[in-house]
Design brief:
Rossmann fold, globular, 3-stranded parallel β-sheet, 11 helices, alpha/beta
Length: about 325
Amino acid sequence: MKKILITGALGQIGTELTASLCQKYGAENVIISDIRDEVPENLSGGIYEQLDILNKEKMEDLLLKHKIDSVFHMAALLSATGEKNPQMCWDVNMNGTINLLDLGVKHKLNKIFVPSSIAVWGNGIPLDDTPQESVLRPTTMYGVTKVAAEAVCNYYQQKFGLDIRGLRYPGIISSETLPGGGTTDYAVEIFYEAIKRSKYSCFLDADATLPMMYMSDCVRGTIELMEADLDNLNYHADYNIAAVSFSPSELAEEIKKYIPEFEITYSPDYRQKIAASWPRSINDEAARNDWAWSHEFGIEEMTKDMIEKLSARLTTKV
């Protein structure tokens, strides 16, 4: 990877992925794009270009202008947001992806990363230790687009030889950027509310166990997959990846170790039904065998780091 384009670079994962790629490959070699006109002041390095991924002509102009050879395609509408506007979710997640794949073939891009999600699963799967190869029955439009994207990416890989890679992300937890409309957002919101108000009302059930991952592991795993030897990969756009699984009540107990007065209540909404159709834990042996994936943060390490970083930041703001 010499010249890298990141779409959706101002999103939850894109923001921290941008910082890591700038540090690793040099800010002058990282082109960051998003649909927003204004760039946040805390954007870390990189060259910013405004881009609507549905505008194929503009996307092509950027690829040529900056001589891009690799793309991290992080732009998407997430599960909860997608349920509010299914048509837009399909347009952004599918048509935007196909625009990129077509241009990847046309301009012979070296590598493309297209993330997938635990939302590809649904009713009828083994909820514990969900295998790499299993039935995909999504219950959200977001999940539908991710299943379709996996299939389309694997098709482009087989038919055109385009090197496309992707991970089925679990819920991602970050101290740097707020989430953007996902069913697992509670696992970030709870820390802010615990530190600011010592209480939180959760939109999932107390025992709604879901696969989660700390952002540093997420970013590292993404880059490691893109740098892996293609000959070692038995899968492409649909690798299972896992770190830790926990429920809201289990996370609350960890938080109470640092904030004893913290109280959590539960008011499940439509997102609970979505969560109930997703795995409780994921089998990621393929990733661990094929490219030596290994997570570093469990619930204890993640909670400690989140509390320390957010406490310092929120206290400073006050």
